[in-house]
Sequence to fold (72 residues):
Amino acid sequence: MEILVKRFDPQGRLLLPKELREKLGEEVMIVDLGDRVELLPRRRADLKKFFDSIEVEELKEWEELKKELWAE
Fold:
């Protein structure tokens, strides 16, 4: 684990080193944990893992289908 000390610029921006930006990707989620914040990479969900995970006799309303997929 490496510890870096950085300062915000006058506009409130924080410059992250290139290595961290490459690790995190182009978009991050900022999680406010009260006494600290965490930066998490925002990855696109791989929806292929849901293919064939449920049996659908006929196409239902989208909201109902989403509920069934998330229940699996």
About this structure: Strands lie at 28-32, 37-41. The chain is about 25% helix and 15% strand.
